[in-house]
Design brief:
With 148 residues, this protein is α+β, with helices and mostly antiparallel strands. The protein is built from five helices and five strands; from the N terminus they run βαβαααββαβ. It has one domain.
Length: 148
């Protein structure tokens, strides 16, 4: 399934046309993609590497978290860019494997980088899910027609 959607606040044909002229709309594509393609396009080796971590998470970290019952649920009060160890990331992935329907998760990709959903993607990779829902934010919008 492929479609292009434009994210904006007020659905008003005049406003939309003005935003198209000014190139201030954020065009996105909603796709179902094979995880192998996402991994290749985003240049991910095995599992995503987070910026603020001690090392790359590996499958053994996730396996250990599941085996020992170390599950880390999301915490809205935690800054998503704060430091977490690879074991903490694995515990977060293990929690997703335990409670989520991984066939229905969605990630967000911009400029061939996963900008939201690295833990979800990791859970799908570990669980050998074949297809994932993706919101792809287009970097250079080329808008020709808008139907409002």
């Amino acid at each position: 399934m492929k479609s292009t959607v434009y994210a904006f606040r007020n659905l008003d044909r005049m406003n939309v046309n003005q935003q198209v002229r000014e190139r201030t709309l954020m065009p996105i594509k909603i796709l179902q993609r094979h995880i192998e393609e996402v991994v290749l396009d985003c240049q991910i080796l095995r599992y995503p590497k987070w910026m603020n971590t001690d090392r790359v998470m590996v499958a053994g970290d996730i396996k250990h978290a599941i085996k020992t019952g170390c599950f880390l649920a999301p915490d809205e009060s935690r800054d998503p860019n704060s430091y977490m160890t690879a074991q903490d990331h694995a515990a977060r992935v293990a929690w997703l494997i335990k409670v989520s329907d991984l066939e229905k998760v969605t990630i967000t990709i911009a400029e061939n980088k996963v900008v939201d959903g690295n833990h979800r993607l990791s859970a799908c990779i570990y669980s050998k899910i074949k297809v994932i829902n993706c919101v792809v934010i287009l970097a250079t919008p080329k808008v020709s027609v808008i139907a409002a």
